[in-house]
Amino acid sequence: MKHHSDRLWSAVIITALSAAAVSAQPQASLNVEVNRTKAAASPMLYGLMTEEINYSYDGGLYAELIRNRTFRSDWSGILNWYLIEKGSSSAKLTVDNGDGPSAALHNSAKIEVTKADANSPAGVLNEGYWGMAVRPNTRYRGSFYARSSSDSALPVRIALVADQSGDVLASTSVEVTGTAWKQYQFDLRSGKAAASPENHFELTIARPATLWLQLVSLFPPTYHDRPNGNRIDIMEKLAAMRPAFLRFPGGNYLEGGRIDQRFDWKKMIGPLVGRPTHPTTWSYHSTDGMGLLEFLEWCEDLRMQPVLAVYAGYSLGGQVVKPGPDLDQYVQDAIEEIEYVTGGPETTWGAVRARDGHPAPFSLHYVEIGNEDNFDRARTYDGRYAQFYKAIKAKYPNLQVIATMPVKGITPDVIDDHYYKREQGMFEESKHYDATDRNGPKIFVGEWATREGSPTPNFGAALGDAAFLTGLERNSDVVIMAAYAPLFVNVNPGGMQWSSDLIGYDALNSYGSPSYYTQVMFASCLGDHTLTSSLAGAGERFFYSATASPNKLCLKLVNASSAEQSVAITLQGVGAASHTARVSTLHANTIWATNTIQAPARIVPVNSTLKINGERLPYVVPPYSIQVLEVTLK
Ligand code: AHR
User: Fold this and answer.
1) What does the pLDDT read at residue 24?
2) Ligand 1 test: best mutation among 447, 484, 488, 502, most atoms within 8 Å of CB?
3) N or C: which end of the chain has fewer CB within 10 A?
4) Closest residue (by CA) to atom 4 of ligand 1?
5) Mutational pocket test of ligand 1: of 263, 286, 420, 444, the residue with most ligand atoms within 8 Å of the beta carbon
6) Are residues 170 and 196 in contact, defined by beta-carbon separation less than 8 angstroms?
7) How confident is the model at residue 26 (pLDDT cuts 50, 70, 90)?
8) What's the gap between Cα 389 and its chain centre?
């Protein structure tokens, strides 16, 4: 995977700046004892957290182009679909609530065409998720379920059409045969069309007939060419973050507003036609195309460990399942979910996974019980956590069981802490774990973000993030994992439910915020242990961390001040020889500076090299800048 920052790599040699350089900040001194280990650093520190929010999957990572492929409707009619009556044709579009291809999808769109011919076709149009990306010379794979009112073959024309010009960018024809529900597959191939999101999908017929439709789907090429897969541009951005794990499926999305709106994993596996879809906590409906196996395959594609959050009997609207017999079915559901993930094909749920196309089990080390259970006003989490913990440990003694808050009566393996603060708050939180008891549970910072900027964070937020991350790195013997949240936002109007999201996109393009690049940089160099070090004389807005592996030293320097910071760095123990450092810098002129979908690369890492002669390095960290120095140790 080629990193954006690599493209910007330049062979510039920065000469070590004189300590006498002009500085509005007092001179600081930073002493790093390169051969003195302080503690082990977690190899899993950097990962991802994800849920269906801000059109993260539908209209985001999940590459489906058709919006509302299952024809949900409200008082205004079928959402996101429109009737086409070209020329002199005449047709009606309604929902047939009693007829569908499966028990899960028991409705359909009924298109009654009373008048149509080759010059005047009629049918339906889908608007996509704020448009549909069409790129030149690209193959789109589609399918739909259909039946017609007669046994004779009914030709159906399918096309991708440019919104403004009406140009047909790709088209094909499929014959629907008979009155029974069947699935039809098709391919569309675009020609020379310029890449654009301003397109839509049309399905038309050219003679009077009645057609029932369900699960109309269309996918562009996907990452690793997976069927029902993910957008390539977004997956590549995630790969550049080198994430070690994926926490899924939430977040509030796991819990649902009500129990029957939780992430009910058994309804989100197997063929799409067997998935009923469900309303989410974030005010829109999920297709559930991103089900349990798709999350696991996402992990497989990016070599991430799954951190599986299981529903724990609390939903956001306040519904709680009491610990005891009432909770047993949910505990059993979690046990079976773990078996679906980890069981061999000879196990009941491992066999279901094999049926779903993945015979090999996934490895799993962490299971999280619920999400933010401190919101449970009935205060039942102690009992609920204990019930899950005991059942999981009885069957899977090696699994680490994460609690979402401190619990009484049992010591959790790991506790999940969340931080959403402004820049100043995150500067303060950078010290949060400095005094944490090393004999207690490990910490998973399962959600965190500096919340400045919308839809994606600005540079001030990136500075807060970087400061916070230096604190996590410094304490990465106890903080074993951390994940920013939310990860994604569709930047179109109405796409966002939560501001300050790491990666933004529309139907065609995606971009990383300054906070995104901060994480790319921080994860690019992380040692396997922290070093003994000390800082004196720096301004209050200066932060750092020092980790190392046998062959490299990783120094993170964060200057969140508007003035440069001189630092006399001593790399104690590196010896008299010269060393080369690779320096990555993220800088902006103001804390309001940011990237956008129109200007995605205003703030990106700039790479350079630095020669270090011996142990002493007089250095100046520029104002408003985040730097990662990777020093090769001989
Ligand atoms: O990240 C957005 C929301 O913040 C998550 O769904 C929830 O866990 C937290 O409150």
Assistant:
1) 60
2) 447
3) C
4) 251
5) 420
6) no
7) confident
8) 27
- β pairing state of 77-78 and 73-74: antiparallel
Q: Of ligand 1's atoms, which has the minimum distance to the CA of residue 498?
A: 2
Count the alpha carbons within 13 Å of 547 in the hemisphere toward its beta carbon. Answer: 26
d(CA 39, CA 478): 9
**Distance (Å, whole) CA 140 – CA 219:** 5
What is the CA(163)–ligand 1 centre distance, in A?
Answer: 36
- Beta strands (DSSP E) in 209-252 are 209-219, 245-248
Give me 485's structure tokens: 């949240």
Asked if 266 contacts 104 with a C-beta cutoff of 8 angstroms, the reply is no
Pairing of strands 578-587, 606-613: antiparallel
| Ligand 1 site-directed mutation target among 51, 55, 261, 451, most atoms within 8 Å of CB | 51
- Structural tokens at position 9: 């790599």
Q: Which amino acid is at 117?
A: D
Each residue of 560-598: pLDDT tens digit? 999 999 999 999 999 999 999 999 999 999 999 999 999
Cα 600 to ligand 1 centre (Å): 26
Q: What is the pLDDT of residues 378-388, one digit of tens each?
A: 999 999 999 99
Nearest-CA residue for ligand 1 atom 8 is 251
Tell me, in angstroms, the distance from the centre of ligand 1 to residue 472's CA. 20
Query: Is omega for the bond preceding 313 within 30 degrees of 0, making it cis?
Result: no
Question: Could you tell me the CA-to-CA distances from 567 to 59, 430, 535, 548, 613 in Å, in that order?
Answer: 46, 20, 9, 20, 16
